[in-house]
Design a protein that fits this description.
Number of helices: 7
Number of strands: 11
Mean pLDDT: 82
Oligomer: single chain
Strand content: 5-15%
Structural class: alpha/beta
Helix content: 25-40%
Low-confidence stretches: 181-185, 231-235
Radius of gyration: 19 Å
Largest sheet: 4 strands, mixed
Strand order of the largest sheet: 1-4-7-8
Shape: globular
Distance between the termini: 45 Å
Order of helices and strands: EEEEEEEEHHHHEEEHHH
Length: 235
């Protein structure tokens, strides 16, 4: 999370569910809140006494900064002994799972009498109805793009002389490869760090995770693809 100048944090505050977010200059965070909205922007209030949360703002309005940072981290990494703790991508299964849960919470948000939305995971901040709708679109497009990109990589690999692409039922791709847990969970738990996530070390688990995401976002898409002549090939 990037902090602007003059921010004030009144602990306890938990932003572990807001990775790669921005807290604008001059924002004061009240104590006793947890924010679960990755890639979001938190700004000072305009007319009310609550900060305004913009879900998924960086994905839509500043994607260049994410791409630049990911490349920067990769090129500036020189400590070989710390490779396990620094060699990971910003867009990875864990952050995608967070986006899925945040999108689902936005979709289930209730409308208040003042026109704001009561969103689980927004902490003590207000989320306007327009920001909710925009956030749902941003997260949905991001998650689908992640799954389709992984599927494209599988297809490109299968197109090689030794490539293999076979359909596997969703029941065979559970466990650590699954999607995010159901939204709305109030249990407090430490986030899964990249170097502790088996999907970061096993490409097969990462690919299985992407397929599960695609099944959730577009039910039947993987099955239709695998049933298409020429879509799968044996070595």
């Amino acid at each position: 999370t990037f902090w602007g100048l003059g921010c004030r944090v009144k602990y306890p505050v938990d932003l572990s569910g807001m990775p790669y977010g921005l807290v604008a200059a001059g924002v004061t965070l009240d104590p006793g809140q947890r924010i679960h909205m990755p890639f979001s922007l938190l700004t000072t209030p305009s007319t009310r006494d609550k900060n305004r949360l913009h879900p998924g703002w960086l994905l839509a309005d500043s994607p260049y900064s994410l791409e630049r940072n990911e490349r920067k981290y990769g090129t500036r990494r020189t400590a070989a002994s710390h490779a396990d703790y620094t060699n990971y991508k910003i867009i990875r299964p864990a952050t995608v799972d967070m986006c899925v849960a945040a999108r689902d919470n936005l979709q289930n948000a209730a409308t208040e009498q003042d026109g704001t939305r009561k969103v689980r995971g927004a902490g003590k901040n207000e989320v306007l109805s327009s920001d909710v709708e925009k956030g749902v679109t941003i997260y949905s497009e991001f998650v689908l793009r992640y799954a389709l990109r992984s599927l494209l990589q599988e297809l490109e690999s299968a197109a090689k002389p030794t490539g293999v692409l076979r359909h596997r039922p969703a029941a065979e791709e559970g466990g650590a490869a699954g999607c995010a847990p159901p939204p709305g969970t109030d249990a407090v738990s430490a986030p899964v760090l990249p170097w502790d996530d088996p999907r970061e070390r096993d490409p097969a688990l990462a690919a299985a995770h992407a397929r599960n995401v695609l099944r959730r976002e577009r039910p039947g898409a993987v099955h239709r693809l695998s049933a298409t002549p020429g879509a799968a090939r044996d070595a």
